[in-house]
């Protein structure tokens, strides 16, 4: 009976902590839903494949009919195909069916198909290549391409110089961002709480310091540590696995600085909800997991269903991973990643202002 009495007392204490109960039930549901929708097989939806049909003949039609069973085909101009793959990253690849394809095919002469690709979306590009092989088998009803190899495929990278990108160039940056965010978030929340417990915060409040100066000084230290950690992780990956840092090192450093700035501001905003020391670790880990899972740190964002891709841009991780992919995978310039850098800086600034305004300095 004494055991039950102690247990009943603890259960009453647990029931009083409603935020903890919410994390216990809601967070696993959210994370499991994200993983299931993304990796469940149907969450990402149909791949869109722009097609430039310069042939307009029967062989081109057979190829397109066969591909349409697996992907969403959209007939576009050559300029539109280049734009959607190279500039806007709307499609993983675009297929060009050359003029005279059907005539050469029917007379047993070979033709070369052009596949304009974005290797940063390598999983979808590989899937499209596999479906192209299946489409060739359907075209064999008009001729015999399997033995004479009448159709060959030329691949051209529309975004950079590499046709294949190693998988760790997705995973290493994503998990690096996750651990840096986790370190800053837990460090900011626990550091401020320790100042309260030690009474240091009270002494700082009566010092001739404005509120923004107090938070600015304390967060600057976390910012420096987080930036050093992120650069060290990228340097480790570059030295060990040869991970690209993009075409311009200054642009890469500027992007890293903007990412860590947004993380620092976001951490202060989250710390406003950690009202007790016991909530810091569960809240910090929960927010980190959800934000990183949604934002594309665990897997490429294009694998997520469309609704989740839209929701992801409410978080800094989606903007950060998108800019990193544009820089190191697609080899884009400062002008291309400048909008994402601007969003990250604005995101961090808004979170800093909100957190500095509503964070409770007293216990």
Write the layout of secondary structure elements.
Layout: H1 2-16, H2 18-39, E1 48-53, H3 58-68, E2 72-75, H4 78-87, E3 93-97, H5 101-106, E4 111-117, H6 122-139, H7 145-148, E5 151-157, H8 168-198, H9 200-206, H10 211-241, H11 249-271, H12 277-295, H13 306-312, H14 316-329, H15 334-358
Parallel strand pairs: 1-2, 1-3, 4-5
Antiparallel strand pairs: 3-4
Helix pairs in contact: 2-12, 3-6, 8-10, 8-11, 8-12, 8-14, 10-11, 11-14, 11-15, 12-14, 14-15
Helix percent band = 55-70%
Strand order of the largest sheet: 2-1-3-4-5
> Uncertain runs with pLDDT below 50, 5 residues or more?
none
Number of helices: 15
Quick summary:
By secondary structure, the protein is α/β, with parallel strands linked by helices. It is built from 15 helices and 5 strands. Strands 2-1-3-4-5 form a 5-stranded mixed beta sheet, with helices on both faces.
Summary keywords:
alpha/beta, 2 domains, 15 helices, 5 strands, elongated
Q: Can you describe what's shown?
A:
By secondary structure, this protein is α/β, with parallel strands linked by helices. It folds into two domains: 48-157, 3-Layer(aba) Sandwich (abc type-2 transporter like fold); 167-358, no CATH class. It is built from 15 helices and five strands. The protein has helices at 2-16, 18-39, 58-68, 78-87, 101-106, 122-139, 145-148, 168-198, 200-206, 211-241, 249-271, 277-295, 306-312, 316-329, 334-358; strands at 48-53, 72-75, 93-97, 111-117, 151-157. It has a five-stranded mixed beta sheet with strand order 2-1-3-4-5, sandwiched between helices. The longest helix has 31 residues, at 168-198. The two termini are 37 Å apart.
């Amino acid at each position: 009976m004494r055991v039950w009495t102690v247990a009943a007392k603890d259960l009453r204490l647990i029931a009083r902590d409603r935020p903890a109960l919410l994390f216990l039930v809601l967070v696993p549901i959210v994370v499991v839903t994200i993983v299931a929708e993304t990796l469940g097989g149907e969450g990402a939806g149909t791949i869109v494949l722009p097609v430039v049909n310069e042939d307009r003949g029967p062989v081109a039609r057979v190829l397109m009919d066969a591909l349409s069973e697996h992907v969403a085909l959209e007939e576009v101009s050559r300029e539109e195909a280049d734009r959607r793959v190279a500039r806007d990253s709307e499609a993983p690849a675009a297929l060009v069916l050359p003029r005279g394809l059907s005539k050469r095919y029917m007379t047993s002469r070979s033709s070369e198909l052009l596949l304009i690709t974005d290797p940063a979306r390598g999983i979808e590009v590989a899937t499209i290549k596999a479906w192209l092989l299946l489409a060739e088998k359907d075209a064999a009803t008009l001729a015999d391409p399997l033995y004479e190899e009448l159709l060959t495929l030329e691949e051209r990278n529309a975004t950079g110089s590499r046709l294949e990108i190693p998988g760790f160039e997705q995973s290493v940056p994503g998990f690096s961002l996750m651990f840096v965010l986790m370190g800053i978030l837990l460090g900011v929340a626990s550091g401020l709480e320790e100042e309260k417990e030690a009474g240091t915060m009270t002494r700082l409040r009566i010092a001739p310091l404005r509120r923004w100066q107090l938070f600015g000084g304390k967060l600057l230290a976390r910012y420096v540590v987080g930036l050093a950690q992120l650069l060290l992780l990228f340097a480790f990956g570059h030295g060990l696995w040869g991970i690209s840092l993009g075409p311009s090192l200054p642009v890469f450093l500027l992007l890293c600085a903007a990412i860590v700035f947004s993380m620092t501001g976001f951490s202060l905003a989250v710390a406003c909800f950690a009202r007790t020391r016991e909530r810091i670790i569960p809240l910090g880990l929960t927010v980190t997991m959800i934000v990183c899972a949604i934002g594309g740190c665990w897997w490429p964002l294009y694998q997520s269903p469309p609704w989740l891709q839209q929701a992801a841009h409410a978080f800094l991780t989606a903007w950060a991973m998108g800019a990193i992919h544009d820089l190191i995978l697609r080899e884009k310039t400062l002008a291309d990643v400048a909008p994402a850098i601007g969003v990250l800086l604005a995101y961090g600034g808004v979170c800093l202002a909100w957190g500095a305004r509503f964070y409770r300095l007293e216990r």
